[in-house]
Write a structure and sequence with these properties.
The chain has 436 residues and is an alpha+beta fold. The protein has 12 helices and 25 strands.
């Protein structure tokens, strides 16, 4: 069986002119039993070790003896004769740092790349682990999933022949080491199987509201919102919606902090300015880039304010927001869950720290450092962290995540009734705060 390496792909600063953040999660497979260039791999190992040694934001390496790690792993790398062994060893060393945004990804193979954000086809459903069950949490109207009769609250049992447990067992666990990140990784692995080439069918087996077992073949539809940011990367599919909920409450949702969100968000704010309050739904948001998340935050503050600081090896950068001319000043609620990643965590955690927004939902995974990326002599891509994100209040988000002010879990029984308990809690907060 091919071993799957599920890592985070980041964009270099030179491409987007800002702080590097992840676009999760490509699923790479490595063919075992293939001979490799030992010299190139040793050179690659030395570059990886030295880069961390010179640039890692924590000079103590979290208590890890980095010199000793080199002595342990380099002889093993020198003896490795297969691709799979090389990647397991070098990532094993890096994972001892217990930090996100780190790893060595095999050379690009477009046939193996499967990014939820860049996949051209979708069946239009979202899935989350509720307990041990893979529960459908939303179905986009008019999507292939909706046409097949899928509904929130249905439980997926198999995707293309694999059980949820088999998918979990096959998913490589990467730092930070805690249960929230495990759930995030397994959920991401399930989603990566639901997305894929447009026009291809996937097979799913699920339980309906009565526990009756069904099997369906659903053809992925072509996605809208294609955005080509740079020739070095595949196009991304950016979703954005803005509307009014019952009770005259504004609602905005987008799946990544990527263009053209920074253009559409001010337009949405202008149209919702007179609403009782505003909900920004970042559940399942994949992260994105610095200019977009900073630009959005500046639409929501009234005065210049410290928003983030980035601690590097030898210095700390402070980032202040400069308020937009027509910034939104009303009541603000941000929804998050375990799949709210990186920029979504920076945005929500910083809004919470300056008391600008109430956070509702589930605690995020804490995948939040600044990284960079280089190509190694053996053609692999090396992703490595260079700065640690902190909120204005000094909270380190990496590993810790964002803890909601109002913690609410999704509930399968309520989903089957058409009730999104997290969204309902956000609405109720605004209704209490801003009576009609």
């Amino acid at each position: 069986m091919k071993r799957r390496f599920i890592l985070l792909l980041v964009m270099p600063i030179s491409l987007l002119g800002g702080c590097v953040q992840p676009i999760p999660s490509p699923t790479m497979t490595v063919e075992p039993q293939r001979e490799i260039n030992v010299s190139d791999n040793l050179d690659s190992f030395d570059i990886v070790w030295q880069t961390i040694n010179d640039t890692y934001f924590d000079p103590t390496f979290g208590g890890l003896d980095w010199n000793e790690a080199r002595e342990r792993y380099r002889p093993l790398i020198a003896a490795a004769q297969e691709d799979e062994t090389f990647y397991e060893l070098i990532n094993g060393m890096l994972f001892e740092l217990n930090v996100s945004h780190v790893g060595v990804v095999p050379p690009d193979d477009k046939e193996q790349l499967d990014l939820v954000l860049s996949a051209e086809g979708s069946v239009g459903i979202q899935v989350r682990l509720l307990g041990d069950e893979a529960v459908i949490t939303s179905v986009r109207p008019g999507s292939p999933g909706a046409q097949a009769g899928l509904r929130p609250g249905f439980v997926l049992q198999r995707i293309d022949g694999q059980t949820v447990q088999e998918i979990a067992d096959e998913t490589l666990q990467i730092p930070p080491w805690h249960e929230r990140n495990r759930r995030k990784l397994v959920t991401g692995a399930m989603l990566s199987r639901l997305y894929g080439p447009a026009g291809e069918a996937i097979s799913i087996i699920y339980l309906d509201e009565k526990g009756v077992r069904h099997e369906q073949r659903i053809v992925r539809a072509e996605r809208e919102g294609r955005v080509a940011l740079d020739p070095a990367f595949p196009p991304f599919f950016v979703e954005f919606e803005a509307r009014r909920l019952n009770g005259d409450i504004g609602y905005v949702r987008f799946n990544a902090f990527l263009p053209p969100v920074h253009e559409r968000f001010p337009e949405a704010i202008a149209s919702l300015r007179d609403a009782r309050g505003l909900i920004i739904d970042l559940r399942g948001n994949h992260g994105g880039v610095f200019p977009v998340r900073k630009g959005l935050a500046e639409q929501l503050v009234q005065e210049r304010v410290l928003f983030w600081s980035y601690k590097g090896r030898d210095s700390t950068r402070e980032v202040y927001l400069e308020p937009a001319r027509d910034a939104y000043t009303g009541t603000l609620v941000v929804l998050i869950d375990v799949m709210s990643l990186s920029s979504a965590e920076e945005f929500s955690g910083a809004m919470q720290a300056i008391d600008r927004a109430v956070i509702v939902g589930e605690r995020s995974a804490g995948i939040c450092v600044v990284g960079d990326v280089i190509q190694l002599p053996n053609g692999a891509t090396f992703i490595y962290p260079i700065e640690q994100t902190r909120t204005a209040g000094g909270t380190v988000l990496e590993g810790h995540g964002v803890t909601p002010d109002v913690e609410v879990k999704l509930d399968r029984a309520l989903l089957l009734q058409g009730v999104d308990s997290q969204l309902e809690a956000a609405v109720e907060y605004i209704e209490r705060r801003v009576p009609e």
